[in-house]
Input
Amino acid sequence: MALRTPVRGASLVEQTVAILLERINSGVYARAAQLPPEHMLAAEFNVSRATIRSAIGVLAERGMVLRRHGVGTFVSQIPRLANPLNEAEDFSYMIARGGCAPGVRFVQVELAPPEPAVAAALALLPGQRALRSCKVFTADGEPVIFCVNTVPEHVLGEPLAAEALREPQLIEPLFDMLERRCGRRTQHQLAKIRAARARECRFPELALAPDTPLLFIEEVGFTADEAPIWHSYEYFPNSFMTFELVRERVRR
Amino acid sequence: MALRTPVRGASLVEQTVAILLERINSGVYARAAQLPPEHMLAAEFNVSRATIRSAIGVLAERGMVLRRHGVGTFVSQIPRLANPLNEAEDFSYMIARGGCAPGVRFVQVELAPPEPAVAAALALLPGQRALRSCKVFTADGEPVIFCVNTVPEHVLGEPLAAEALREPQLIEPLFDMLERRCGRRTQHQLAKIRAARARECRFPELALAPDTPLLFIEEVGFTADEAPIWHSYEYFPNSFMTFELVRERVRR
DNA sequence: TAGTGGTCTAGACCACCAC
DNA sequence: TGGTGGTCTAGACCACTAC
Output
């Protein structure tokens, strides 16, 4: 196999991460095997050791690789997480990655001032409107995610907000749309995680038994400037997807 | 106010983080204010700019600080999270941090081969025993966390396992105990997050209405060598605590 | 003792932003 | 244009582990 080497253009660290990841996933570096020492990789990739160290640091953070001081760097034995909760992506992609055909059904769409809690989270002034859409995401036709999105009119722009009211599929997938059509990239989101029963959900016409347990995530998306650009209530029945997370031990 | 400067001994980056954090929390750098440029901090602390950058990078990851390319670094406006789900600590400390008096009640303790799923997660051989303890954590006397811990006998050592069977409070708080008495530090844990109803819980004598919604976390703790050293089923009623998390947008 | 990862430096150059 | 953060380098020295 021809082993790639970084090309100038994107960040050298990112390229190095990609190459190492590819080697791990393809088995060039087998599970539990030791990686070549950093100075060797630096020589092979023709970059400095600092660059290699940053790249390996990224992999270590993701749990792909394990460093042992004075010994070496090893491919992790822990299998990769399925749905890492600390990483967010558009639901359609998430469903597709799970091997199912994604779909969306819009249950209700309106353009109005949102409820006070949501307005506060989005830093809206009284009277400012937002597009609120209740969606059901399906996997192979089965409903798997119930979601209430609220996006301020000033984020969408008035023409797009009006248009989306008639054609709600325009604003899906949300992250992509906000980036492409509004120039607003979601950098991170603040999530609150709880449990709920179907009967308590803020979702119209929920086709579930009233005491079905649901994972309930309420989150607000922010741009790199910390401007809130969307709010979301999300309900996940256990049957379809569970989330996983690597938690670090901390000392306070 | 006398501004501290790093001292050699601990990592320069860690010291720098601590000092910057202190300045932020004490208001030397007010909310939304701009930090001095990196080269200034480097000169002030008498370290290289790379060291300063690493330190600021740590703060940026924690959401304490916001970097703007070509502009500067600013103190974040987003308030600090209450219970960041990606950080784990002993429940007693978590409850105490919430301003309540922590307590633990042991409902059931046994030393036996665990159920197959748990044995597999802990890489136990058939017949190997583990200490399984069902605990209720209380805050000001109110039950707020239900937890089923399983720790292999070979991790505890036979004497301690036998002793803990009679005096279960010996193994609490778990992280501390494993570190102090067994020399096994929990480095990270792999968690699966779901919703559940009280009636489905693997917990004896749960004093809750059968359809109470609970956040259900199943996790396995690992040492730095990736050896699994404990397993845990945890149930959180919403009423007491909710978890929060910063999720990053990813591209795949 | 040899080899590994961990820390730190001094300096170069680039990309972005405001004026 | 000047100042900021973003990237990268070459090299030094330390700390840890295995033999």
Notes: Residues 11-13, 47-51, 54, 68-71 of chain B lie near DNA strand C (CB under 10 Å from a C1'). DSSP finds eight helices and ten strands in chain B. Residues 1-8 of chain B have pLDDT under 50 and may be disordered.
